[in-house]
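Module 6 notes. Inverse folding takes a fixed backbone as the condition and produces residue identities as the prediction. Think of it as a translation problem where the source language is geometry and the target language is the twenty amino acids. Below is one complete input and output pair. Work through it position by position during the lab.
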């Protein structure tokens, strides 16, 4: 069997759509950027994986970028799966931010422009509702949490969304402040669960928005007692675009 045939079989097992046209394999993605696989050497084997961006057109190629070179069917399959999972996650985050169906009128989601699948929406007085997509094994999950965020974090996130943005020094200063020993005394975190079904999460988010102020008050009580969980350092980094 040829490399393409072996790869097609492996992708079929992973339920990944593909087609072969003019000696190359093409794979559509949720973001509209196709993957193109070209076999460079059938004997080794070696294959190059490219990203094809058609921009707003469906026929004229805007750019082609080499994503990875694979030397086995397993390597090519892993690279394709990883990219598709990331693309799916970012597409969901984009839907939260753009809200094309108007499902979350009380939540104005934003996301750092870093390619990290995380979105956040201010809620209540000092609350921040966070949706972060991670991959556990072969399964994607959307972890939702509510933060009692210090003013410095809220101000920095707001500043980063402006055209002028924020300086690296200012961003790192806020990161150092929020991850320094004792920072848990003025910020708090609570998990609102993880969702493998993104459609289910979209249904639950409006309810979370209505309850956020109540949960924020409960977090404030925990913070005053000194038993509130601190905001995870990796979440702070992702929110600030440092991940």
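Target side of the pair, the amino acids:
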């Amino acid at each position: 069997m040829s490399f393409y045939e072996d790869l097609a079989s492996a992708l079929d097992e992973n339920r990944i759509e593909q087609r072969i046209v003019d000696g190359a394999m093409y794979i559509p993605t949720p973001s509209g950027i196709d993957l193109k696989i070209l076999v460079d050497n059938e004997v080794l084997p070696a294959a190059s994986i490219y990203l094809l961006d058609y921009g707003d057109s469906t026929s004229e190629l805007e750019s082609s970028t080499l994503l990875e070179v694979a030397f086995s069917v397993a390597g090519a399959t892993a690279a394709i799966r990883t990219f598709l999972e990331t693309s799916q996650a970012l597409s969901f985050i984009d839907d939260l931010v753009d809200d094309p169906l108007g499902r979350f009128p009380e939540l104005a989601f934003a996301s750092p422009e870093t390619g990290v699948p995380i979105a956040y929406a201010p809620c209540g007085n000092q609350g921040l509702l966070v949706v972060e997509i991670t991959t556990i094994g072969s399964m994607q999950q959307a972890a939702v949490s509510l933060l009692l965020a210090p003013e410095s974090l809220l101000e920095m996130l707001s500043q980063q969304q402006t055209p002028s943005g924020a300086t690296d020094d200012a961003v790192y200063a806020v990161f150092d402040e929020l991850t320094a020993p004792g920072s848990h005394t003025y910020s708090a975190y609570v998990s609102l669960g993880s969702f493998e079904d993104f459609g289910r999460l979209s249904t639950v988010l409006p309810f979370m928005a209505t309850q956020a102020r109540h949960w924020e008050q409960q977090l404030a009580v925990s913070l005053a007692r000194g038993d509130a969980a601190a905001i995870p350092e990796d979440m702070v980094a992702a929110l600030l675009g440092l991940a």
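Reference fact for the lab report: The mean pLDDT is 89.
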